[in-house]
Amino acid sequence: MTARKKTQPPKRAARTTKSKRTQQERRAASDEQLLKGAVGLIARRGSNFSLAEVGRCSGFSHAMAGARFGSRAEFIRNVRMTIRQQSYDTWEPHASARRPIDAFDAYLDWVSHADEGGRALYILLTEALTLESPDRADYAEHNLQLRQAFEQSIDETRIGKHPREVNTETIALVLVGMLRGIAIQWLLEGDAINLEQVRATARWILEKALGQTPKPEDRPTARARSPERT
């Protein structure tokens, strides 16, 4: 009598792997939804909320956010990293390509089109100004990294001469100050400010200060970027 063929284990393994992959995708999607819900809460009323509120407003149980992220501090850290990464992805490619004026403009464009993300970032940044804020050092480092990225970009594109007391470090500080100031004013006043006109004016000012951006073939080779600045 011919023996029956046994069920092949690899097929079961394939189904199990597919099931696990689907579970991982579902978890990633729900985590993203929780973080998005938190961004909305921050944009509306600041970071004074509970993890239970995040779960409910995101369409999950009140315990979901706590189960996924552990503590409120860890959850807020993930929210902060998510928003900052979204911002970074918009302007950093221009800075790396030694186009500081384009990077400046891209940042303002992100703030104006980031829905609740841009507002949430500036609310968290403002809350970090308090002396006892546990996030103050983290945002100071974020500010420093932003300035350093612009400083390197400016250093590699500068054309023309500047006064002796002016250097790329202080130019970057003033440039980031312009970014922060314009963004905060627009977030406060909304349509009362013509942001497109402001962006055009800022570009004109920066072109006057930095000179025309060199053509690609005239640009110097970029220096290696430190991992701490990425």
Automatic annotation (TrEMBL):
InterPro entries assigned: Homeodomain-like_sf, Tet_transcr_reg_TetR-rel_C_sf
User: For the region Disordered, what residue ranges are annotated?
Assistant: 1-30, 211-230
Q: Which Gene3D superfamilies match?
A: Tetracycline Repressor, domain 2 (1.10.357.10)
| Regions annotated as coiled coil | none
Residue spans of biased composition, Basic and acidic residues class: 215-230
Compositional bias segments (type: Basic residues): 1-21
Protein name listed in UniProt: Transcriptional regulator, TetR family
